[in-house]
């Protein structure tokens, strides 16, 4: 069935290096995507979003890239810090009135 | 703080117990959601309320019963649960319902069914 998923369940990155977290989606009709961050003991927190008419969007230290050709979404975190340790979810929305479908999540470990 | 609070944060209950989870949002949003988060599985949407009316029920068993008395409060009443219902239950709110994307989540209630 259609789903939103993540390639890697865990990712370990040296502090100060850049992190890239990947996500695949299966529905080419999806028109809106979100990345969430979930720290231990907390609920998911909105990080950044991107619409399907865009290829790239930048925030503070984060960049989301959307490749509609291969239905791939990625989150880049620049100069990772200990506070970036969390589980990161991508989410897909088919249209403005549909529910969110989340991926399973990737756990990001920051090594000292 | 996200402006969404949940109580209790942890709950252990037997299969014959009846308990309720509470969610409150202080953001002035008009839509609220219940999600279930199990280990190694994606977030599962359970219920959606928009303007205090239930607009979505994702085939959730009747042992879970939601209640939305006003736009700021959401409850999840639990009865005769099963061990597989043990999970983190997350509440969220948004401005605009049905599929509004910028949802604000509470910290969740960690539920253990024994």
Structural account:
The complex is a heterodimer of chains A (112) and B (114). Chain A has no helices and eleven strands. With 112 residues, chain A is mainly β. In chain A, strands 2, 4, 5, 9, 10 and 11 form a six-stranded mixed sheet that branches. In chain A, strands 1-3-8-7-6 form a five-stranded antiparallel sheet, with no helix packed on it. In chain A, a hairpin with a 6-residue loop joins strand 4 and strand 5. Chain B has strands spanning 4-7, 10-13, 18-25, 31-37, 44-50, 53-57, 64-70, 73-79, 87-94, 104-105, 109-113. The relative contact order of chain B is 0.34. Helices cover 0% and strands 56% of the residues of chain B. In chain B, strands 2, 4, 5, 6, 9, 10 and 11 form a seven-stranded mixed sheet that branches. Chain B has a four-stranded antiparallel sheet with strand order 1-3-8-7, with no helix packed on it. Chain B is mainly beta and 114 residues long. Chain B has no helices and eleven strands. The A-B interface holds A 3-4, 9, 32, 34, 41-46, 49, 89, 91, 93, 95-105 and B 2, 4, 40-43, 45, 48, 56, 90-92, 98-99, 101-108.
Brief write-up:
The complex is a heterodimer of chains A (112) and B (114). Chain A has 112 residues and is mainly β.
Topology:
The complex is a heterodimer of chains A (112) and B (114).
Chain A: E1 4-5, E2 10-14, E3 19-25, E4 32-38, E5 45-51, E6 56-58, E7 62-67, E8 72-77, E9 86-93, E10 100-102, E11 106-111
Parallel strand pairs in A: 2-11
Antiparallel strand pairs in A: 1-3, 3-8, 4-5, 4-9, 6-7, 7-8, 9-10, 9-11
Chain B: E1 4-7, E2 10-13, E3 18-25, E4 31-37, E5 44-50, E6 53-57, E7 64-70, E8 73-79, E9 87-94, E10 104-105, E11 109-113
């Amino acid at each position: 069935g259609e789903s939103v998923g993540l390639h890697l369940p865990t990712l370990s990155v040296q502090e100060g290096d850049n992190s890239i977290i990947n996500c695949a989606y299966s529905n080419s009709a999806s028109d809106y995507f979100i990345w969430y961050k979930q720290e231990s003991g907390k609920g998911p927190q909105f990080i950044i979003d991107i619409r399907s008419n865009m290829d790239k969007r930048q925030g503070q230290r984060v960049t989301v890239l959307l490749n509609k050709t291969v239905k791939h979404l990625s989150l880049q975190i620049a100069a990772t810090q200990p506070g970036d340790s969390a589980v990161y979810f991508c989410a897909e929305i088919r249209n403005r009135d549909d529910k969110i479908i989340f991926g399973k999540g990737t756990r990001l470990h920051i090594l000292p | 703080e996200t402006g969404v609070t949940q109580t209790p944060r942890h709950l252990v209950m037997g299969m014959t117990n009846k308990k309720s989870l509470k969610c409150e949002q202080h953001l002035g949003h008009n839509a609220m959601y219940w999600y279930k988060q199990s280990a190694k599985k994606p977030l599962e949407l359970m219920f959606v309320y928009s303007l205090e009316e239930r607009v979505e029920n994702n085939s959730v068993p009747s042992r879970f019963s939601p209640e939305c008395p006003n736009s700021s409060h959401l409850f999840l009443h639990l009865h005769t649960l099963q061990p597989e219902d043990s999970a983190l239950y997350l509440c969220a709110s948004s401005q605009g319902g049905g599929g509004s994307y910028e949802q604000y989540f509470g910290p969740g209630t960690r539920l253990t069914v024994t």
